[in-house]
Amino acid sequence: MEKTVIRIAIQKSGRLYEDSVKLLKECGIDLRNVKDRLKTESDNFPMEVFFLRDDDIPQYVEDGVADIGIVGENVLYEKNKDVSVVEKLGFGKCRLSFAIPKTDEYTGMHDLAGKRIATSYPFLVKKYLSEKNAVAEIHEISGSVEIAPGIGLSDIVCDLVSSGSTLLMNGLKEVETILHSQAVLIRNHSFNGEKLKLLNKLVFRINAVKKAKHNKYILLNAPNDKLEDIIALLPGMKSPTVLPLAETGWSSVHSVLNEDVFWEKIEKLKEAGAQGILVIPIEKMVI
Ligand code: ATP
Ligand code: ZN
46 CA distance to ligand 2 centroid (A)? Predict the structure, then answer.
């Protein structure tokens, strides 16, 4: 019987390429000779990888040419294909926003009425306009949307923004956001059995990597009379590990801290009497 492999489509080159390959690597999936290939495979996980333009990924996954794919939500929702999102991946963050010339006034969507909007996202823009009962002319262009007003092609743009510096350089200001986007793992609907087991295995690993990124391992020294207060500050995966130090009256405390509460906790731990605090990145976290 032929061995089951899961086929994943990722961006061939561009903003999502490196993070996609890195994510697979962090999941322990090594890819053979990635450079300048259309397709490669892994030696240590039953996976084939297709390198495609991001715009084509939803279609390939809907058709089942690839089983799963990594693509930005912006592209996914623009293409409107019949695939489902398995997992948000936390990279490739950006937003799809309207931008107008810096010197123009903006009070709301009604200011866009009758204007010409240049965008690579005609489907999403049209949908948003109709939700807001606004009417405008949409000009679809495939790249360098931000120069359209400068060359007289449009009055406004609707384009991807991360820092906003590209807009600024082109004399534009962001006025309204349609969509907040990040890279997601998508899947074809129709597979199950062995292939689904492979997808679940991958998702399990992705979650371990994601959790690890959000947490830090922390070690500190505590005088025994302060231990109770210090332990109360630490959630840990179960409860913190406490080990006696060679110096009597002192213990070493080990725990895991979430990055959202990290700095605040560190300060409280110091106030509670903790010393010699060490913080270490976690590579994988399986709960
Ligand atoms: P391709 O050749 O694959 O069609 P592309 O030029 O369409 O590439 P990239 O510019 O590489 O695409 O962007 C890929 C994705 O990265 C975007 O669709 C979006 O999800 C994400 N992204 C994150 N930040 C930004 C940003 N500041 N500008 C554009 N895309 C961004
Ligand atoms: Zn593209």
Answer: 28
